[in-house]
Amino acid sequence: MGGLSKYFRNPFASLFSRSSREDQLAGYVIREHKLGRDLDDILDDPYIKNRASDLERRRLLERPDIIRAVGEDTAAASAAGAGDQQPPGSQTPGG
Fold first, then answer.
1. pLDDT at position 27, please?
2. CB atoms closer than 10 angstroms to residue 60
3. At CB < 8 A and 24+ separation, what contacts does 48-55 make?
4. pLDDT in tens, 49-84
5. How many CB atoms neighbour CB 87 within 10 A?
């Protein structure tokens, strides 16, 4: 009966809580991305597909830890490539 009373105390708690399975999947996504894998490739990975529905996979992309990890890598890659590119509208001499 204790579990039922917890439900009535906060019936929406499960909507806003994270499961340990979701934490494990997020950790996997972050580790694989740091190893250089493309995010779409990771989300199509059988490990993720066998453990998460389409909705759960989309929810993973809303997690701040995944956004931070993917964003930091993307920003670092952009910064590294910025020296190789000309700003839009600029032309090289003689070109």
1. 95
2. 21
3. 51/21, 51/25, 52/22, 52/25
4. 999 999 999 899 889 999 999 888 777 776 777 655
5. 6
Instruction: Write b or e for each residue in 10-48: b if 16 or more Cβ atoms lie within 10 A of its Cβ, otherwise e.
Output: eeeeeeeeeeeebeebbebbbebbeeeeebeebbeeeeb
Rg (CA), the chain: 20
Alpha carbons 4 and 92: distance in angstroms, whole number: 71
Structure-token pair, residue 13: 């708690």
Task: Give the distance from CA 74 to its chain's centroid.
Answer: 12
pLDDT at 21 over 60: yes
